[in-house]
Every structure is written in structure tokens, then in C-alpha cells.
Amino acid sequence: MAQRTVLLILFDGVQSLDVTGPLEVFAGAELQAPGSYGIRTASLDGAPVRTSSGLTLAPDTSLAAAPAPHTLLVPGGQGTRSPAPALTDWLRRHGPHTPRLVSVCTGAILLAEAGLLDGRRVTTHWAYCDKLARDHPSVCVDPDPIYVRDGPVATSAGVTAGIDLALALVEEDLGRETALTVARHLVVFLRRPGNQAQFSAQLAAQTARREPLRDIQQWITEHPAADLGVATLAARAGLSPRHFARAFRAETGTTPGRYVDRVRLEHARRLLEDTTSGIEEVARASGYGTPEAMRRAFLRTLGTAPTEYRRRFRPAHTP
């Protein structure tokens, strides 16, 4: 087995977890499969860098002296807002010759500045997706997934999503058992699928200020198959349907119907990813009633049918 060199770029203002999260994954894999990864860190001039949290990181070497990597990992952080031109130039020269380009969080901005994301589908931290799309119109920015693979380029959302992506890369390189062992040691899930939304339904919507409405949000999440019409939900909240609908939208930023739609879709996706339940059973458990209703919802929101979604995002050996 040929060793894969993983090079992590360091710079002032880097987000420490964007570096240490993936680093711990690759280092853990190297412990399980010695010789699998050669991990190196490098700053532009080889000098220590100060992270956005104030932690100082000492790199192994300078970029000029760094070995040609198999996997080049570019973290994010405040330092991506005004990157050193020399760093962008280095990425522009070396990126096209690297077998696997990886970014965590706003590291995607550095890759885009170097012209390495043109024509690619990518993601980044939700708060910077609009900026990335606006500043680089030739890049297809998807704000929803926690990570995206497009050919040799892999981009991830903020902070912990870098761990998910690194685990996916280890699974690709060394197999599921090695990745599972690393995940267990880090006490994280082995596999949050890359298409999983950066926000759950409850996080995507604002949390209501008033307790009755907060309770309704929680009840919807716990009972996706129940009658979740406005009249029923309003009665549970002790409000008239009109007052409930108006208050729910004012406090959560979305309508009751859209919130219910997102909860049901999220629930169905989890069942398709993590269970062997039949499509009809998943549709009933998620509140769609019929497989056709669930199919329409998946096609409308995700652009794929439930059966195809399961084929793509649930490992064949999932129990």
C-alpha cells in the first residue's frame, strides 16, 4: 500500500478545529494502518501561526519545502478574509497537480481565489455561501450539505463537518472498519452523509420565543406522522388557527406548513439512510401517507426519488 501524503496548510487566523479535527482523523487512521498516511503541516514561511482562538501552531515545514501531497487540506478561519497573495499563488501553482484537494469551512474561499473551484459544485460554512457565490460566479455553491465531492475536489461546511469529510476520505482509502475504529476513538458518528443538511429543521428555523410555540416545534419533530395541520397544531397551542399561523411565522421565520415539510423530509432521509424499512413504511412513519407523496416531496426538494436516494447514501451493509 502506497503511503498518501496529507499536507495541511497553516496561516495566521486559521480556525484551530478546522486543522486539528481532520488531523486527528488521519493520525488515527495512521495508527490503525501504519504507513497509510504521511501527515505534514506547513505555513507559508515555516514560521508558527496564531489561530483565531489565540492558540499558536508550529508547522513542520514551509510550503516551499513541503513534499508534494496526495491530499492537500486547506482549513478556514478569519485568515481567509485577507489571504497572503503568496499563499494564493502557491495554491494556484500546486493545486492543479494535487490528486485530492480538500477544504474545510472557508478554506473553500482560498481555493476559489486560486481558481481551483471554477465549474465545480462546492459548499462552505453556511454564513459564507452567499459571499462565495457572489465573488466567484463560476463556482456552483450548494449551501445545504455538510460536504460535497466533485471529482478530485472535496469541500466541507464549518468546523465539525471537516471531521465528517476526513472520515469519508479514510473510509474511501482504507475501508469502513478502519474509519469506524477512528470514529469510535473520537466518539463521533462514522458517517453523516455529505448531503445531510448543515441545519436540522429546528436549527434552520428560529426557535420561537413563546413556550407554547417552542413546544409545538418539538412536538412536530417527535411526531412527524401525526396530523400536523394548522387547525390541529393551533388547538394544541391554545390559539386560533389564524393567530397560530401568524405567530408561528413571526417567531420562527417560516410557515407551519414549510416547517412540517422540512421535518418530514429530514425524518424520511434518516430512515432511508439508517434502516432497512421499506419505502411504504418510511412514507407512513414520516407522515407522507403514501410512497407517491414522499416521492413527490423528494423530487421537489432533493431532485431524486427515495429509492435512488437510499441507493446513493445508505451503505449496502447497514443493518
From TrEMBL:
Coiled-coil annotated residue ranges, if any: none
Alphabetical UniProt keywords: Transcription, Transcription regulation
Residue ranges of domain HTH araC/xylS-type in the record: 214-312
The keyword Acyltransferase is assigned to this record: no
SUPFAM superfamilies on file: Class I glutamine amidotransferase-like, Homeodomain-like
Alphabetical list of Pfam families matching this protein: DJ-1_PfpI, HTH_18
SMART domains listed in its UniProt record: HTH_ARAC (SM00342)
UniProt-listed PANTHER family: ARAC-FAMILY TRANSCRIPTIONAL REGULATOR, HTH-TYPE TRANSCRIPTIONAL REGULATOR RV1931C
Protein's name in the database: GlxA family transcriptional regulator
